[in-house]
Amino acid sequence: MSEPRKLEVLRAIVEDYVHSREPVGSKALVERHHLGVSSATIRNDMAALEDEGLITAPHTSAGRIPTDKGYRLFVDQISAVKPLSPPERRAIQSLLEGSDDLDDVLDRTVRMLSQLTNQVAVVQYPHLSRAQIRHIEFVLLAPRKVLVVLIADSGKVEQRVIDVGHDLADDALAGLRTRFLATLAGTPLGRLSMVLPAVVSAVAPVHRQAAQALANGLEILGQNSREERMVMAGTANLARSNVDFPLSIGPVLEALEEQVVMLRLLSEMAQDPRGVAVSIGRENPYDGLAEASVVATAYGPDSTAKIGILGPTRMDYPTTMAAVRAVARYLSRILGP
Amino acid sequence: MSEPRKLEVLRAIVEDYVHSREPVGSKALVERHHLGVSSATIRNDMAALEDEGLITAPHTSAGRIPTDKGYRLFVDQISAVKPLSPPERRAIQSLLEGSDDLDDVLDRTVRMLSQLTNQVAVVQYPHLSRAQIRHIEFVLLAPRKVLVVLIADSGKVEQRVIDVGHDLADDALAGLRTRFLATLAGTPLGRLSMVLPAVVSAVAPVHRQAAQALANGLEILGQNSREERMVMAGTANLARSNVDFPLSIGPVLEALEEQVVMLRLLSEMAQDPRGVAVSIGRENPYDGLAEASVVATAYGPDSTAKIGILGPTRMDYPTTMAAVRAVARYLSRILGP
DNA sequence: GTTGGCACTAAGGCATGCCGAGTGCTAACT
DNA sequence: AGTTAGCACTCGGCATGCCTTAGTGCCAAC
């Protein structure tokens, strides 16, 4: 019983099952792949694979389907990442050009990825802790309500309404703004909390309280950009692959809606040497995703944010991984250094 | 055959069907509701209702289920809007207090509504065309790239990166900002496009091109706030009511994702005297929603934006309408005039 | 280590028959 | 005229049983 052939058999099973959705048997295998041996031999190999926990039979007399572990081995050792077709590459390129607003770029990207893979695509907003403060604006909305706006040099804008505690004149607010801005311009968002106290304590006591409130607001904004949000697209694809995991579509939607879950999942995924991370079935920390796989990769100037897709474990990993990787690369290029 | 009793029968059918999910027959009806007549009489009434197209039998020997038209009559004439329970009211109130950021409020609201109704909830961002420009900021990101930020007195912030066409010094940009701001402060967003040309033509020729680019950017931002976005929550509830319309969940997700579809739908819905609009099944302009109903109402200071829910036609209209209306009222109160 | 053969197994498809829920109609009742 | 009881009829749903089919595991032979 040759080891290489066993792997070949596993590969064949995965590939056939992925696109037939049906348990694959020994006879069908020898017919569809020229393995050079008889079905009986394959049966022996399959029995061995089953012993190793790589495949399983849903019932006595059916073919085999890959287990999570089987997919894992397939992804890690057997499959080669398929390159995208030139038309696909062109599509990506042309779609992503001609927009420069961050929200817009991410939105287009995630839609494109979901179409490309026929799965749900998600993208995390880029981390900004290294981004620097470009501008600060305080706008008096109501007697005590101030809109605090923070603009980073990456083009990201964060805003928040805060209550300064007592009435504040327009020019006093302008003064505070100048003061904050003078000290804070160029400060990386990540260092915001270290610099703010000094600014506040330098303010005249009359406005100390307001300054403190404003500083708190700014700090929250700075954290917002770290705490991250995400965009997704293609949830309808879940329903299409309905046939696969009809029961679990609910939990999956919940997971997607609870962005925290997805964000944690994405950030915990370790990339393999090929630059793509795959999390299969029960490998996922979240129970609702027990029958789903996530394929993700990092992107952006400092490769900290993630982009990826979520689909049934029964998915075409090579193609999907290729798509995710390609889209991430284009995205990185667009966002520039 | 008494007309009032016929309506009573329709009401009973709708109510029973809504919570049993099964066609309801004449005998079951007389048992569960004290109608004071025999099942044979009900059968006659039902035959009449069927002739009028208000109910239909899925097959020869099954009970009847309401048609879209039947639901319509039920909603319009029969049902009374049920008041929410005090605990529910308290829940709404306490959840919505203690946040003043617009995004945050809408997000909480929509989650609450989806939990309350067990449906998908959607909320449209409030219209801002009557909001006034509070502040404008130009930030030079790269030699020719300028981030245009527009802050409205409602607390809404819009931003966009634009290409000004040629290099621009920091102080020149500051000059332009002052100029724009002087003219535009206090202008309602809706009138932006009428005022901008005058500002541009007043700029010195050297910076005319840049000013024009900036003006275009501002105009787009002004339109953005009209063209509206929406937030949603509770898509997982779709899967729960899986059993009802398993086939159509795909199209529904698509409709939700294509925000344009939903926004148009919401804005086209006319409210009835009770202040709630209901669109049932095929009444919906979008085909994917043929088996879904939308219950929505206006909210906000000038009652232009919409909030509502989307669910299967087989839904508990009275309770749902009450929830939507109540949440909309609280939301209006929070946003204040 | 590979192969062919054979007994065995469970699922899926299909016909059959039966039950129950529900209808429509008619004739009688109030 | 409206209401009711009764009855024949119609399907859907479910259980039953049968057959076919795809697949396995094992063994003896190559």
Characterization of this structure:
Chain A contains 13 helices and ten strands. By secondary structure, chain A is α+β, with helices and mostly antiparallel strands. In chain A, the strands form three sheets. A five-stranded antiparallel beta sheet of chain A has the order 7-3-10-9-8, sandwiched between helices. In chain A, strand 1 and strand 2 (65-66) form a beta hairpin. In chain A, helix 2 (26-32) packs across helix 3 (39-51) and helix 7 packs across helix 8. The mean pLDDT of chain A is 87. The A-B interface holds A 100-102, 134-135, 137, 139, 141, 145, 147, 149, 151, 153, 155, 157, 159-163, 233-236, 238-240, 242, 246, 249-251, 253-254, 256-257 and B 100-102, 134-135, 137, 139, 141, 145, 147, 149, 151, 153-155, 157, 159-163, 233-236, 238-240, 242, 246, 249-251, 253-254, 256-257. The structure holds a DNA duplex (30 and 30 nucleotides).
Q: What's the total count of β strands of chain A?
A: 10
| Distance linking N and C termini of chain A | 52 Å
| Shape assignment of chain A | elongated
Could you tell me which chain pair has the largest interface and how many residues each side has?
A-B, 36 and 37 residues
Q: Give unreliable regions of chain A as ranges.
A: none
SS field, number of helical segments of chain A:
13
Radius of gyration of chain A: 26 Å
What are the secondary-structure elements of chain A, in order, as H or E? HHHEEHHHEEEEHHHEHHHEEEH
In helices, the fraction of residues of chain A equals 40-55%
Main β-sheet, spatial strand arrangement of chain A: 7-3-10-9-8
